[in-house]
Amino acid sequence: MSEHGPDRHAPQEVDEYLAAQAPGPRATLERLRAIIRTAAPDCTERVSYRIPIFRLGKDFVALSVAKNHCALHTMSKAVPVAMKDELKAAGIGTSGTTLHLDPGVALPVSLVERVVRARLAELGGG
Fold this sequence. Notes:
Oligomer: single chain
Number of strands: 6
């Protein structure tokens, strides 16, 4: 049996992941990254499961790009449920623990900050 090695085409660093995206989604992801870094300046970044993941003691959020949206993975069932009315009012779709953000629309920065801070609070770090 052969062992599966790492995917040689998968990004190894967050900057590499971002650089591989089209300009619109890349700008949205870079803005999300900045919001996350502001809320959790001591967090670390890594690529796992082929997407950028942010960690502060443990993984707390992640980013990705899909065909029609950018995603903020909250890694929490409770946060999107607790904020569902605000998210819906802002035009942000959800699917489970993931927020779907249109790369062609300005980010509701304060709402995204609240989502990230709620996730940190859930983990006891905010």
